[in-house]
């Protein structure tokens, strides 16, 4: 069985749900269930986060 780790950056639950469905459609192997998709929520960061900290 093949496992894929997928990092998703989003503003909320809706973004994450949409990207999960898109990745399932793209990475699934049609009728066979030989692919396991592991989703990881990544925290959104910008250059301003580091600048504002200091």
Write structural notes for this entry.
There is one protein chain. With about 55 residues, the protein is of the alpha+beta class. The chain has helices spanning about 15-25, 45-54, and strands at about 1-10, 35-40. A two-stranded parallel sheet has the order 1-2. The longest helix has 15 residues, at about 15-25. It is elongated.
Task: Using brief descriptors, characterize the structure shown.
single chain; alpha+beta; 2 helices; elongated
Shape label? elongated
Query: Helix count?
Result: 2
Order of helix and strand elements from N to C terminus: EHEH
* pLDDT averaged over residues: 80
Distance between the termini: 46 Å
Helix and strand composition category: alpha+beta
Poorly predicted regions: none
């Amino acid at each position: 069985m093949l496992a894929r780790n997928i990092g998703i950056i989003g503003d909320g639950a809706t973004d994450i749900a949409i990207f999960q469905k898109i990745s399932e459609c793209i990475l699934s192997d049609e009728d066979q269930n030989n692919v396991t998709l592991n989703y990881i929520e990544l925290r959104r960061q910008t250059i301003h986060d580091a600048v504002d900290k200091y």
